[in-house]
TrEMBL record:
Residues 11-132 form the Response regulatory domain. It holds the Pfam family Response_reg. It comes from the Bacteria. The modification 4-aspartylphosphate is found at residue 65. Keywords: Phosphoprotein. This is Chemotaxis protein CheY. The lineage of its organism: Bacteria, Thermotogati, Deinococcota, Deinococci, Deinococcales. It comes from Deinococcus soli (ex Cha et al. 2016). InterPro entries: CheY-like_superfamily, Sig_transdc_resp-reg_receiver, TCS_response_regulator.
Length: 146
C-alpha cells in the first residue's frame, strides 16, 4: 500500500451518525498515512454548532452523510453554502444513498463531490483511503482563513 504523507495535517469534519463508519474512516486515514485532524459531528445540528463556534478549528473539508437524525446532510449542505463564512469549505457527500434525486440535489446545493459508501468493509476502507489521497495529492483546497 502506498503511503501518502501530508506535511500539514488537514482538518476534516466528518458528519456521520454511524459509529462503525466513524471508526473505519479514522482507521483508513491512519493506515494510508494521511495526516488529519478528524473532528466528528454525529448529526447536522451538531455539525452546524461546530462550524459556527469560533473556538473550533475551521475544517479544510467536510465529509457529510445524508441520512442523519435531527437535520439531514442536504439541509446542512444548504446552510453551509448560504453562509458567507462557511461557503468556501468543500463539502463531499459521503453516503449510502444511490438515489438520483439525492445526487442531483447535492450538486444543486453546491456539493464538491458525491461519493457512495460501499457496503462491503474492504471496499469502504479502500474508498476512504482513495478519498484521502485525492484530497491531499490531486485537488487544491482553499487557503485557511486567518
Amino acid at each position: 500500500m502506498t503511503q501518502t504523507h501530508s506535511p500539514i495535517p488537514i482538518h476534516l469534519l466528518l458528519v456521520e451518525d454511524s459509529e462503525a463508519d466513524i471508526i473505519l474512516t479514522q482507521e483508513a486515514f491512519k493506515e494510508a498515512g494521511i495526516h488529519t485532524h478528524l473532528h466528528v459531528a454525529r448529526d447536522g445540528v451538531e455539525a452546524l454548532e461546530f462550524l459556527r463556534d469560533p473556538a473550533r478549528p475551521r475544517p479544510d473539508v467536510i465529509l457529510l452523510d445524508i441520512n442523519m437524525p435531527r437535520m439531514n446532510g442536504l439541509e446542512v449542505l444548504r446552510e453551509v453554502k448560504q453562509d458567507p463564512q462557511l461557503m468556501t469549505i468543500p463539502v463531499i457527500m459521503l453516503t449510502t444513498s444511490r438515489a438520483e434525486e439525492d445526487i442531483l440535489r447535492s450538486y444543486q446545493a453546491y456539493a464538491a463531490s458525491y461519493v457512495v459508501k460501499p457496503v462491503e468493509f474492504g471496499k469502504f476502507y479502500d474508498a476512504i483511503q482513495a478519498l484521502g489521497r485525492y484530497m491531499l495529492t490531486i485537488v487544491r483546497l482553499p487557503p485557511r482563513a486567518g
